[in-house]
Specification:
Elements (H helix, E strand, L loop, with lengths): L1 H26 L1 H32 L6 H17 L26 H9 L10
Helix pairs in contact: 1-2, 2-3, 3-4
Length: 128
């Protein structure tokens, strides 16, 4: 019974603030803006920690150049679902030709999101 309680109790504590933020975001556009900014920055922080973990792990197995790809794609998938933004890349098939240059003008925080969507793996997968 303690295993179930150790899982359910933290979920109950987390669910109340999440429910309150969701209700507040639906009530006011200004609150929705700040909730989405908070979600965006939170996922950015989580993915930066994930990047440190990936860089160490991938460096040990010899795939250190795949770190940016994994972290960028993880950030895109996590943040797009959390914030509710879906990006469609036109001409994505042309990004497979090498070399390709991706440029972000950094006019907003969303540049990180669309660059994460456009990044492709630098190395082909190795057969083991």
């Amino acid at each position: 019974m303690s295993l179930l309680a150790s899982i359910v109790k933290p979920l109950a504590y987390i669910s109340l603030p999440v429910f309150a933020l969701h209700t507040l975001a639906n009530a006011s556009p200004i609150a929705r803006y700040y909730v989405r900014i908070g979600l965006f920055l939170s996922t950015l922080g989580v993915c930066s920690i994930w990047g440190v973990i990936c860089s160490v792990g991938l460096g040990l197995i010899g795939r250190r150049f795949d770190t940016f790809y994994i972290v960028a794609r993880s950030f895109y998938h996590l943040t797009s679902r959390a914030v509710g933004i879906k990006l469609v890349v036109e001409g994505e098939e042309y990004l497979e030709t090498r070399p390709a240059v991706l440029v972000g003008n950094h006019q907003s925080m969303l540049d990180i999101l669309y660059l994460g969507r456009q990044v492709h793996s630098p190395l082909p997968a190795r057969g083991i």
